[in-house]
Amino acid sequence: MRMPFRLNLTLGLALVSLVILGAVFAPLLTPHDPILDADLMNSEMPPSWDHWFGTDSQGRDVFARVLYGARVSLTIGIVAQAINSTIGIALGLSAGYWGGWWDDVVNGLTNLMLAIPSLVFALAIMAVLGPGVPSLLIALGLTNWSWSCRITRSAVMSLKSQGYVQAARTLGYGDIRIMLTQLLPNIVGPVLVMATLGIGEAVLAEAALSFLGLGIRPPAPSWGNMLTDAREAIRSVPWATIFPGLAVFVTVLGFNLLGDGMRDWLDPRMQVRA
Amino acid sequence: MGRYILRRLLQMIPTLLAVAALIFLIFSVLPGSFAGTMTGGGRRALSPELVAQINAQFGLDKPLPVRFWDYLVRLAQFDLGTSFRTREPVVDLIAARIWPSLQLALSAMALAVTVGIPLGFLAAMRPGSLLDSITMIGAVSGLSMPQFWLGLLLMYVFALQLGWLPSFGYGDGRLRNLILPAIALGFAPLALLARTTRAGVLEVMGSDHIRTAMAKGTSPAQMIRWHVLRNVMVLIVTTLGLQIGSLLGQALVIEKLFSWPGLGSLMVDSVAIRDIPVVQGTILVIVLWFLVINVLVDVIYAVIDPRISLR
């Protein structure tokens, strides 16, 4: 069963690179502007050599909007998950290492977060803060750290009785130093896997919130709000629905495959289970 | 058993209280006010007296701790407050949405269970086969696809192009109206169940007691029934429980897309007009559902696996 796991990693890496390159080099890849090139004379054109993904009902180039939308989606996905991972690791490390009342507090908080579906929580926060990128980063960055925290905590609890941690303590290392230099490097694998999968989740959540009109405000292109526009005209302009959704799908698939592949790579016992 | 269930149900109260407090706090730091939204964002500015009157009517003029205490007291009496917009009790608004929500969520789950679990089993029986590969590719795709995009595509093909099914609406709960949203909502849980079942079966098949059973000459059919199924059950129930528990929340976008009159669309619509009592109420119900399902899952564990005792 070596083949499928290599396939996961390779395909995941390829898809993620494709999306990142598309986002970074967007201005070189298309001559069209995602917002300003609204040309009503050329609206609702099917895919062609000039407009690879066709044009939407306002005459904007769908390919250009998908490329520029990748910048928004990737930025939000990566930054939001970085916030989640930081919170999850900090709470998990400290709770697992110190235990006691702090552990109870963190555990209670984690259970609380698990009980509120993260999309519901994010929606509530967006309702308070209003649409926009900063609100999205807060809404998605504060609501999906519970699994990172759990995994870090349980790994630290089994690691802290290990000889090298005891040795560090004997040498007079401070608690924070032990956590950062002795424990953190040993849990980096599972934490990275969680983070990779989490980016996919954040991209999906951003698309959903923008689709509901609570994420990125039009006319700025985001895959979610492109789908809101496209929905009105789905009968005459189906390509405006197909391509932005396909972009979300490819991106999330890439991060999911990459995450699965990394997990199999780090833990060969899991290979068959993938 | 009865005492265990009762105790577990009582243990939900602190979590619910914490959620209530959290949601209350979040909406109390709200920069915009409902009175402001109701008057069209300041374009037709209301007189300050009228705004004060509206705030007093909904008790928004009192200090925060007093409001929170009032809120809890009312909550204890199953009073979720009054909708800012329709002036109806929130409980009534929510009650009207629960059945459509459950209908959709349970249909989606039924689809996921009846297709996902057998598919996972079949795939695990022949690892590396064509069916196995297709199942695994389908599963990771299902988990990566935005549900509402799948919904849009289904709507386009089966409602707008082929005209077989209605494109949106509840249609008095007819099956025709239920099919498309249920498929859109059920596809991701289906994928997850197929994947989990396959992984679980493969793990059990590789374990010592299966090898022993095979060496004893147990027939494959008997082995699956007595040895594999029971051991995989715990894993499946865990996954299923988490999925069912979070399905009401997951359904937000699908309900909105298909104009399905469930809790999710109620929450989304209420968020748009800042009808906060309704938003708070729907969140509490969604969390309550998650917690009740969790208790149920723990009880089922004890029934299917005698090694797990009810503590």
TrEMBL record, chain A:
<feature type="domain" description="ABC transmembrane type-1">
    <location>
        <begin position="70"/>
        <end position="259"/>
    </location>
</feature>
<keyword id="KW-0813">Transport</keyword>
<dbReference type="InterPro" id="IPR035906">
    <property type="entry name" value="MetI-like_sf"/>
</dbReference>
<keyword id="KW-1003">Cell membrane</keyword>
<dbReference type="InterPro" id="IPR000515">
    <property type="entry name" value="MetI-like"/>
</dbReference>
<protein>
    <submittedName>
        <fullName>ABC transporter permease</fullName>
    </submittedName>
</protein>
<keyword id="KW-1133">Transmembrane helix</keyword>
<comment type="similarity">
    <text>Belongs to the binding-protein-dependent transport system permease family.</text>
</comment>
<dbReference type="Pfam" id="PF00528">
    <property type="entry name" value="BPD_transp_1"/>
</dbReference>
<dbReference type="InterPro" id="IPR050366">
    <property type="entry name" value="BP-dependent_transpt_permease"/>
</dbReference>
<feature type="transmembrane region" description="Helical">
    <location>
        <begin position="236"/>
        <end position="259"/>
    </location>
</feature>
<feature type="transmembrane region" description="Helical">
    <location>
        <begin position="119"/>
        <end position="143"/>
    </location>
</feature>
<feature type="transmembrane region" description="Helical">
    <location>
        <begin position="187"/>
        <end position="216"/>
    </location>
</feature>
<keyword id="KW-0472">Membrane</keyword>
<keyword id="KW-0812">Transmembrane</keyword>
Automatic annotation (TrEMBL), chain B:
<comment type="similarity">
    <text>Belongs to the binding-protein-dependent transport system permease family.</text>
</comment>
<dbReference type="Pfam" id="PF19300">
    <property type="entry name" value="BPD_transp_1_N"/>
</dbReference>
<keyword id="KW-1133">Transmembrane helix</keyword>
<comment type="function">
    <text>Part of the ABC transporter complex GsiABCD involved in glutathione import. Probably responsible for the translocation of the substrate across the membrane.</text>
</comment>
<dbReference type="Pfam" id="PF00528">
    <property type="entry name" value="BPD_transp_1"/>
</dbReference>
<feature type="transmembrane region" description="Helical">
    <location>
        <begin position="102"/>
        <end position="124"/>
    </location>
</feature>
<dbReference type="InterPro" id="IPR045621">
    <property type="entry name" value="BPD_transp_1_N"/>
</dbReference>
<feature type="transmembrane region" description="Helical">
    <location>
        <begin position="178"/>
        <end position="195"/>
    </location>
</feature>
<feature type="domain" description="ABC transmembrane type-1">
    <location>
        <begin position="98"/>
        <end position="297"/>
    </location>
</feature>
<keyword id="KW-1003">Cell membrane</keyword>
<feature type="transmembrane region" description="Helical">
    <location>
        <begin position="278"/>
        <end position="304"/>
    </location>
</feature>
<protein>
    <recommendedName>
        <fullName>Glutathione transport system permease protein GsiC</fullName>
    </recommendedName>
</protein>
<keyword id="KW-0472">Membrane</keyword>
<dbReference type="InterPro" id="IPR035906">
    <property type="entry name" value="MetI-like_sf"/>
</dbReference>
<keyword id="KW-0813">Transport</keyword>
<feature type="transmembrane region" description="Helical">
    <location>
        <begin position="136"/>
        <end position="158"/>
    </location>
</feature>
<keyword id="KW-0812">Transmembrane</keyword>
<feature type="transmembrane region" description="Helical">
    <location>
        <begin position="232"/>
        <end position="258"/>
    </location>
</feature>
<dbReference type="InterPro" id="IPR000515">
    <property type="entry name" value="MetI-like"/>
</dbReference>
